Amino acid sequence: MKKVLVFGTFDGLHEGHLNFFKQAKEFGDYLVVVVGRDSTILKTKGRPPKFGEHERLKAVQECGLVDAARFGNENMSPYVVVKEVSPDVICLGYDQTHFTDKLDGWIKENGLHIEIHRLEAYKPEIFKSSKLNA
To answer: pLDDT value at position 123?
Structure first.
Protein backbone atom coordinates (compact mmCIF):
# COMPACT_ATOMS: atom_id res chain seq x y z
CA MET A 1 0.00 0.00 0.00
CA LYS A 2 1.37 3.39 -1.02
CA LYS A 3 0.54 6.12 1.53
CA VAL A 4 0.08 9.74 0.47
CA LEU A 5 0.23 12.66 2.90
CA VAL A 6 -1.15 16.18 2.41
CA PHE A 7 -1.25 19.18 4.74
CA GLY A 8 -3.56 22.17 4.78
CA THR A 9 -5.90 24.53 6.53
CA PHE A 10 -9.06 23.51 4.61
CA ASP A 11 -10.90 26.55 5.91
CA GLY A 12 -14.29 26.15 4.28
CA LEU A 13 -13.88 22.97 2.24
CA HIS A 14 -14.47 23.80 -1.43
CA GLU A 15 -14.06 22.33 -4.92
CA GLY A 16 -10.39 23.33 -5.03
CA HIS A 17 -9.71 21.27 -1.90
CA LEU A 18 -11.68 18.31 -3.24
CA ASN A 19 -9.71 18.44 -6.48
CA PHE A 20 -6.50 18.60 -4.42
CA PHE A 21 -7.53 15.37 -2.64
CA LYS A 22 -8.40 13.69 -5.96
CA GLN A 23 -5.03 14.64 -7.47
CA ALA A 24 -3.18 13.40 -4.38
CA LYS A 25 -5.01 10.05 -4.49
CA GLU A 26 -3.53 9.47 -7.96
CA PHE A 27 -0.11 9.04 -6.32
CA GLY A 28 -1.07 6.23 -3.96
CA ASP A 29 -3.63 3.96 -2.36
CA TYR A 30 -4.21 5.59 1.03
CA LEU A 31 -4.63 9.34 1.56
CA VAL A 32 -3.87 10.91 4.93
CA VAL A 33 -4.88 14.55 5.35
CA VAL A 34 -3.36 16.69 8.10
CA VAL A 35 -5.60 19.58 9.10
CA GLY A 36 -3.75 22.53 10.60
CA ARG A 37 -4.46 23.46 14.22
CA ASP A 38 -6.04 26.85 14.88
CA SER A 39 -2.94 28.01 16.75
CA THR A 40 -0.65 26.95 13.90
CA ILE A 41 -2.73 28.81 11.33
CA LEU A 42 -2.71 31.94 13.44
CA LYS A 43 1.07 31.68 13.69
CA THR A 44 1.72 30.97 10.00
CA LYS A 45 -0.95 33.13 8.37
CA GLY A 46 -1.21 35.87 10.96
CA ARG A 47 -4.97 35.43 11.30
CA PRO A 48 -7.29 32.83 12.78
CA PRO A 49 -9.17 30.48 10.46
CA LYS A 50 -12.79 31.29 9.69
CA PHE A 51 -13.85 27.82 10.84
CA GLY A 52 -12.56 26.11 13.97
CA GLU A 53 -10.22 23.14 13.79
CA HIS A 54 -12.84 20.56 14.82
CA GLU A 55 -15.28 21.78 12.18
CA ARG A 56 -12.55 21.74 9.51
CA LEU A 57 -11.40 18.24 10.50
CA LYS A 58 -14.97 16.92 10.42
CA ALA A 59 -15.56 18.39 6.95
CA VAL A 60 -12.42 16.68 5.63
CA GLN A 61 -13.33 13.37 7.28
CA GLU A 62 -16.83 13.47 5.80
CA CYS A 63 -15.94 14.54 2.24
CA GLY A 64 -15.63 10.94 1.05
CA LEU A 65 -12.25 11.34 -0.63
CA VAL A 66 -9.78 10.71 2.19
CA ASP A 67 -8.84 7.55 4.03
CA ALA A 68 -7.70 9.25 7.24
CA ALA A 69 -7.69 12.78 8.58
CA ARG A 70 -5.98 14.10 11.67
CA PHE A 71 -4.77 17.28 13.27
CA GLY A 72 -1.24 18.52 12.93
CA ASN A 73 0.85 18.66 16.09
CA GLU A 74 0.29 21.85 18.01
CA ASN A 75 3.48 23.79 18.75
CA MET A 76 5.59 21.19 16.98
CA SER A 77 7.34 20.94 13.66
CA PRO A 78 5.31 19.53 10.76
CA TYR A 79 8.20 17.13 10.30
CA VAL A 80 7.03 15.30 13.43
CA VAL A 81 3.80 14.46 11.59
CA VAL A 82 5.79 13.22 8.59
CA LYS A 83 7.66 10.82 10.88
CA GLU A 84 4.43 9.69 12.58
CA VAL A 85 2.53 9.05 9.33
CA SER A 86 5.54 7.64 7.46
CA PRO A 87 4.23 8.38 3.95
CA ASP A 88 5.61 7.18 0.65
CA VAL A 89 4.50 10.40 -1.04
CA ILE A 90 3.86 13.97 0.10
CA CYS A 91 1.70 16.10 -2.16
CA LEU A 92 1.86 19.87 -1.86
CA GLY A 93 -0.65 22.43 -3.00
CA TYR A 94 0.32 24.70 -5.87
CA ASP A 95 0.56 27.68 -3.50
CA GLN A 96 1.66 25.90 -0.33
CA THR A 97 4.76 27.51 1.17
CA HIS A 98 4.84 26.82 4.90
CA PHE A 99 7.82 24.51 5.65
CA THR A 100 7.90 23.21 2.06
CA ASP A 101 11.13 24.99 1.10
CA LYS A 102 13.15 22.80 3.47
CA LEU A 103 11.14 19.60 3.09
CA ASP A 104 13.30 17.93 0.44
CA GLY A 105 16.50 18.63 2.39
CA TRP A 106 14.95 17.35 5.62
CA ILE A 107 13.87 14.12 3.91
CA LYS A 108 17.39 13.55 2.58
CA GLU A 109 19.05 14.45 5.91
CA ASN A 110 16.88 11.87 7.67
CA GLY A 111 17.61 9.14 5.14
CA LEU A 112 13.98 8.86 4.12
CA HIS A 113 12.65 7.94 0.70
CA ILE A 114 9.57 10.07 0.19
CA GLU A 115 8.44 11.38 -3.18
CA ILE A 116 7.31 15.01 -3.26
CA HIS A 117 4.80 16.24 -5.83
CA ARG A 118 3.52 19.77 -6.30
CA LEU A 119 -0.09 19.54 -7.49
CA GLU A 120 -1.84 21.67 -10.07
CA ALA A 121 -4.16 24.56 -9.24
CA TYR A 122 -7.86 23.97 -9.82
CA LYS A 123 -9.56 27.18 -10.96
CA PRO A 124 -7.58 29.34 -8.51
CA GLU A 125 -9.40 32.45 -9.68
CA ILE A 126 -12.56 30.94 -8.16
CA PHE A 127 -11.56 28.26 -5.64
CA LYS A 128 -8.95 29.83 -3.41
CA SER A 129 -9.74 29.99 0.29
CA SER A 130 -8.36 33.50 0.72
CA LYS A 131 -10.81 34.74 -1.93
CA LEU A 132 -13.75 32.68 -0.71
CA ASN A 133 -13.23 33.64 2.93
CA ALA A 134 -12.61 37.33 2.30
So the answer is: 74
